[in-house]
Amino acid sequence: MRKVILGLAVSLDSYIEGPNGEYDWCFTDQDYGMAAFMERIDAIFIGRKSYDLLNNMDEAASDYAFPDYKKYVFSNTLTEVSEGMELIRGDWKTKVIELKKQPGNDFWLYGGADLTTSFISEGLVDELFLAVHPIILGAGKPLFQNIKDRVSLTLIDSKTYSTGLVSLTYRVG
């Protein structure tokens, strides 16, 4: 069965964005395991706010960030999405369970925070792939908020880089 993998950059104090929505603190000077991660997936789950952000990127940046992957947009407010994307509305949990049973590679749960909370609360995240950056932002958008139940994790991989970034991979459950 295909897995849903939450893959994000996070500050040491667990923020995914700075207080003004910035992510200029994320390291881009080397791969940090992203090439291997990208080989594992063939589809991306994004929420409406991330969809809006993606649509505001120039085409070259968007293609670089998400090349040739099927994109699923989760929103109850949108009525249509860009070509090559599929809008998921209403009973999204049943749709995700169906998608996980189909053949293919894993799914990247890209964001945002509300979608992450929903997926974790419904038990639909199988792994976490976190790039923990050596910075304390002090404020911003937290990665985890309003999670309804405790979630147990098992560390399955970790890598430390010369920059101080630590890549952590956890299995959920």
Annotation keywords:
two-stranded antiparallel sheet; Dihydrofolate Reductase, subunit A; alpha/beta; single chain; 5 helices; 24% helix
Supply the CATH class.
Alpha Beta
Q: Which class of secondary structure composition applies to the elements?
A: alpha/beta
The biggest beta sheet is recorded as: 8 strands, mixed
- List the secondary-structure elements in sequence, H or E: EEHEHHEEHEHEEEE
Q: Could you name the CATH topology?
A: Dihydrofolate Reductase, subunit A
Describe the structure.
The protein is of the alpha/beta class. A hairpin with a 5-residue loop joins strand 9 (about 155-160) and strand 10 (about 165-170). The longest helix has 10 residues, at about 90-100. An eight-stranded mixed β-sheet has the order 5-4-3-6-1-7-10-9. It has a two-stranded antiparallel ribbon with strand order 2-8. The protein has helices at about 35-40, 50-55, 60-65, 90-100, 115-120; strands at about 5-10, 15, 40-45, 70-75, 85-90, 105-110, 125-135, 140, 155-160, 165-170. The chain has five helices and ten strands, in the order E-E-H-E-H-H-E-E-H-E-H-E-E-E-E. It has one domain: Dihydrofolate Reductase, subunit A (3-Layer(aba) Sandwich), CATH 3.40.430.10. It is about 25% helix and about 35% strand.
Write a brief caption for the model.
The protein is α/β, with parallel strands linked by helices and 173 residues long. Helix content is 24%, strand content 33%.
